[in-house]
Amino acid sequence: MDRFAHYGWPFFEPRHLELARQAEAWSLENLGHAHGEDADAVCKRLVQDLGCAGYLRYCVTDAPDVRSIALLREVFAYHAGLADFAFVMQGLGSGPIGLAGSSELKAKYLRKAAEGEAIPAFALSEPEAGSDVQAMTTTARRAGSGWVLEGTKTWISNGGIADFYVVFAKAEEGISAFVVDAADVDASERIDIVAPHPMATLKLRGAKGALLGEPGQGFKLAMRNLDIFRTTVAAAATGFARRAIAEALKRSTGRKLFGQKLSDFQMTQAKLADMATRIEAAALLTYKSAWTKDRNQRVTRDAAMAKMFATESAQQVVDDAVQICGGLGVTRGHPVERLYREVRALRIYEGATEVQKLIIARELLRS
């Protein structure tokens, strides 16, 4: 499959194909180190490398081009899951500052994040408040000219290596957003997940916060930020799926058994056909949503459809690739074994599949 054929679709401009090819060449030369066991060290280096190469400026900005973010995620995910993670977390973690921060906060945090000199994190989830954001118990109260935060956040990506956190907490006016420097956060309780990357539970005890936007507008700000990046989760899933089918094609055309290639068996061909179709459909949903967002149109339904379908499809494509690769597919360190661990979280974070279905149904009923 030609991984760049879809850039001829009407959703793209010539600059997008050029960016994708540049990112592909860079990835081939620079991501050999991105599969180490020390996820903290790998991610810190990746952030620096991505910043030096100029790619972080596409996601750390107050005027994001969602198609550019999406295609970069697809390319990076194809080569290394941690590269995709390091890239997008710079944007997701700093996005609320770009959307609602004062000029002083933007100057303090965004330049360093865009250049790979500082690592941000997005702290919304709590032990009893994941998809149900309104169940949040972390509080914020005024203290002189500033704010003080108390509470616990968990499942926080980049937790433990971040230099600053965008934290959502309940003030008298409602859920509000704050920037909290890492020195005011206890992120020592780390979380080990199936595909290792930096994650922690955060404890805020008298943490000093700088308000983002207006008090009580934090929930809307979080949703605006997620509306930008939810579509790009689908792009990352598509990148994983493209790598999976590439590995499946390589193995099936090279593996001989019973006097013929594995790819000569009709059952293998049927599996490959299903994989290719899922990938094509996922890409169409993904880049339609990204294109629509870049036209400043509402994409709540489109982003939910893209995220739901692309992540579920990628899970199936990766599973099929493992099956085609046989014993190699479950050998530690093989590309499809890594993909099998990496793809699973995409069906959960930034809104689980079940939540996306509720969003889609709600939008249909509303219309």
Descriptive account of the structure:
The strands form two sheets. Strands 1, 2, 3, 4, 5, 6 and 7 form a seven-stranded mixed sheet that branches. Strands 8-9 form a two-stranded antiparallel ribbon. The protein has three domains: 110 residues, Orthogonal Bundle (Butyryl-Coa Dehydrogenase, subunit A, domain 1); 96 residues, Butyryl-CoA Dehydrogenase, subunit A, domain 2 (Beta Barrel), CATH 2.40.110.10; 143 residues, Butyryl-CoA Dehydrogenase, subunit A, domain 3 (Up-down Bundle). It starts with 13 loop residues before the first helix and ends with a helix. It is globular, with a radius of gyration of 21 Å. It is built from ten helices and nine strands. It has 367 residues and is an alpha+beta fold. Helix 8 runs antiparallel to helix 9.
Mean pLDDT metric: 95
Instruction: Using the alpha-carbon principal axes, give the shape.
Output: globular
Query: How many runs of DSSP E, i.e. beta strands?
Result: 9
What is the assigned CATH homologous superfamily of the largest domain? Butyryl-CoA Dehydrogenase, subunit A, domain 3
Supply the CATH class of the largest domain.
Mainly Alpha
Q: What is the correct CATH architecture of the largest domain?
A: Up-down Bundle
Q: Give the helices and strands as they follow along the chain.
A: HHHHHEEEEEEEHEEHHHH
CATH topology of the largest domain: Butyryl-CoA Dehydrogenase, subunit A, domain 3
Structural class by sheet pairing and helices: alpha+beta
Strand composition percent: 15-25%
What's the number of domains? 3
Query: Roughly how much helix do the residues carry, as a percent range?
Result: 40-55%
Q: Rg to the nearest angstrom?
A: 21 Å
- Discrete helix count: 10
The biggest beta sheet, please? Answer: 7 strands, mixed
Separation, N- and C-terminal Cα atoms = 38 Å
